[in-house]
Amino acid sequence: MTIITGSEYKANQGKYIKRAQEGERVIISSYGGYVELKPVPETDKDVQEHHHAKSFLALTNRVSKEYEKGDYITLRSKEDVDRWFDAL
Question: The pTM is what?
Answer without folding.
Answer: 0.57
